[in-house]
Specification:
9 helices, four-stranded antiparallel β-sheet, alpha/beta, binds adenosine-5'-triphosphate, binds magnesium ion, 37% helix, 257 residues
Length: 257
């Protein structure tokens, strides 16, 4: 069983320290939710884990499958089984959803076996249609340029489509729920739940308890000022929804700026 172990992670963005010694362990099979006020470093954590070049790791370690992944390139982290669904997905004009996904799948296969000839087109088409049906996406999306002109909710759905085709071992979902309509939230959550098994773990970053009714977390964490300051079960998310963050700030006033 692999686990993602984050130890005392410090990350600078544009010269400012944003993550200030963050500790967290996510095992395969577990769903962890991360909540926290705007600007506390949730997306910074997500980007730093995937290796975004603007996020400068100044201290700490992140272990996954026996490797300190901070030494790996983003594509190597992806091949190892990590995945990030972006809070703000970027569009790639000129690259269709289908081409993008097939290229990503083939890159993964090649990394696992240099002799691999790539997924057969009919097999890929069948798989893509199956996953799109699961997410109730019109098949026409396969031929559109990635995220180009997609509505906010369509972009979030396209992120989950990527996740469903790449089948990562640990997925980070950065506010996948924001921008989704009520039906889409349920459909996307069902898509995530369909991947849930003993080999799939996720870090679900969210502001709202609602998505956690669908994707039931094993653990809920609260981030404040670049650290995880509270951890608990699903009841913690309900408490935050009711009471806000003031009590967390007061409780941790000695470590929070
Ligand atoms: N390029 C940058 N230059 C300066 N500050 C930055 C830059 N990028 C991020 N930051 C700062 O880092 C802090 C953490 O941002 P981050 O996006 O990680 O927060 P977040 O917890 O994801 O917030 P939200 O809930 O609003 O998504 C913020 O104060 C943000 O302004
Ligand atoms: Mg964010």
């Amino acid at each position: 069983m692999s686990e993602l172990v984050i130890k005392d992670l410090h990350v600078n963005v544009a010269g400012n320290e944003i993550l200030k010694g963050l500790n967290l362990t996510v095992r395969q099979g577990e769903i962890h939710a991360i909540m926290g006020p705007n600007g506390t470093g949730k997306s910074t954590l997500a980007y730093a884990l995937m290796g975004h070049p603007n996020y400068d790791v100044t201290g700490g370690e992140v272990w996954f499958k026996g490797e300190n992944i901070l030494e790996l390139e983003p594509d190597e982290r992806s091949h190892l089984g990590l995945f990030l669904a972006f809070q703000y997905p970027v569009s790639i004009p000129g690259v269709t959803v289908a081409n993008f996904l097939r290229t990503a799948i083939n890159a993964h296969r090649k990394a696992a076996d240099p002799e691999d000839k790539g997924i057969k087109i009919p097999q890929f088409r069948t798989m893509l249609k199956e996953r799109m049906d699961m997410l109730k996406m019109d098949h026409a999306f396969a031929g559109r340029y990635l995220n180009e002109g997609f509505s906010g909710g369509e972009k979030k759905r396209a992120e989950i489509l990527q996740m469903a085709t790449l089948q990562p071992e640990i997925a980070i979902l950065d506010e996948t729920d924001s921008g989704l309509d009520i039906d889409a939230l349920r459909i996307v959550s069902e898509g995530v739940n369909a991947l849930r098994n003993s080999e799939f773990g996720a870090l679900v970053i969210t502001h709202y308890q609602r998505i956690l009714n669908y994707i039931q977390p094993d653990y809920v964490h609260v981030m404040l000022d670049g650290r995880v300051v509270e951890s608990g079960g699903p009841e913690l998310a309900l408490q935050l929804e009711e009471q806000g963050y003031d009590w967390v700030r007061e409780k941790h006033s000695s470590v929070v700026a």
